[in-house]
Amino acid sequence: MRLVFEKMESIIPQWRDRVKKLVKEHGDKVLSEVTVAQAYGGMRGVKGLVCDTSYLDPYEGIRFRGYTIPEVLKLLPKENEEAYPYPVGHWYLLLTGEVPTREIVDYLQGEFHKRQIVPKYIWDLIDSVPIDTHPMTQFSTAILALQRESIFAKEYEKGIKKTEYWKPFFDDSMNLLAKLPVIAAYIYRRIYKSYTPIEPSATLDWGANFAHMMGYESIEYKNLMRLYLILHSDHESGNVSAHTNHLVSSALSDIYYSVSAAMNGLAGPLHGLANQECLKWILGLMEKFGGVPTEEEIEKFAWDTLNSGKVIPGYGHAVLRKTDPRYSAQREFALKYLPDDPIFKTVSNVYKVVPGVLQKHGKAKNPWPNVDAHSGALQYHYGVVETSFYTVLFGVSRALGITAEVIWDRALGLSIERPKSVTTKQIEEFVSA
Ligand code: CMX
Questions:
Q1: CATH of the domain at 299
Q2: Is the CB of 410 within 6 Å of ligand 1?
Q3: Residues with active-site annotation
Q4: pTM of the model
């Protein structure tokens, strides 16, 4: 019995009919127009993508399949009332739009355990890369090399029908997701813990197992990991990592190619690397003022950053226009488990000061913190002090969302992506006409 596969098989036909009808009856309706500023400005606000796994409202923040973060944390199955939900249950929610039963989560967990063995050539490959190569590069390289295992690539070679594409994408996604924490933890132990990998557990859930393989066994850290993996999973499909994944996959490149490419986008300082940059900024601030800084000291430090031409990492967002609810969920965790931690206190004080500074500065459209402004403080508290690893944690989580997105892209038969470009000369001629 293939519980999740069968569920997908049962819902895909209705979605296909729904989309086919929409396009047939309303295909010429205009969703969005593109201004000259948008063409040069990263297409901000242009509605030209479809994503059903999550939706980002500028003022409310993310909803996963219609559910807010507090609802997801309440509704998804968990070990006990105190625990945070199992991230594989969240994957099921993203895939199907339904809250899974405990039976489904146990089934998925079992599947992930069966598929978590990583071929030896991946370890050899990682070991051949200089140890000071950024962990994101090691991570993305390992994912790309796993492409050899792609079921879709083999099925395509044999001539699989277009309507069936999603099936090997589904299997490839399960295989890849099961292995990602094992690979990420290996890289962590290789770089920072003198090459001492820890074997995966055959019983722990995907989130707790990741914590275990990194070498962190406390219940609190395992819960933090589950929370982290849920929060960073999906942010609709226009962000750099999700969009890259969607774009690369639209050429029918398999999940290994597209997820590896997505990780390369996540590795940029304006996207996922901001969590590393943000904690470095907080630690620099604390070092400069010898501990938890005052509000005046933070203000000065923030202005120094801005005046030196840099951005304040962890603040601002391309879509959001309020405090990111993923920030708030992490803040709630900190208030519960580490209220007196000096780094958390600094993060809290920065929250009081930086939005005002950014408003006075007058450039950022959103002066509020995003997800990356908080995550490092929590990791640091539990001993994960290696800031350059933080984006890998983000990457493992993001894979949940983007694999779900791409399975649906293939199920709905979305086309190869190919927007049209124009030249600057053509724009000049157009505006002067
Ligand atoms: N500090 C200083 N300046 C900022 C700023 C910040 N935190 N956020 C935006 N700005 C500046 C921009 O650099 C831009 O300046 P220019 O006009 O000189 O180019 C101006 O304000 C307008 O930018 P915007 O429209 O408000 O923001 P964008 O949509 O262009 O960019 C983002 C969004 C996130 C890249 C930007 O806010 C930023 O660089 N933030 C800091 C990095 C960060 O936290 N990234 C993580 C985002 C979440 C994630 O993907 O993980």
A1: 1.10.230.10
A2: no
A3: 271, 317, 372
A4: 0.97
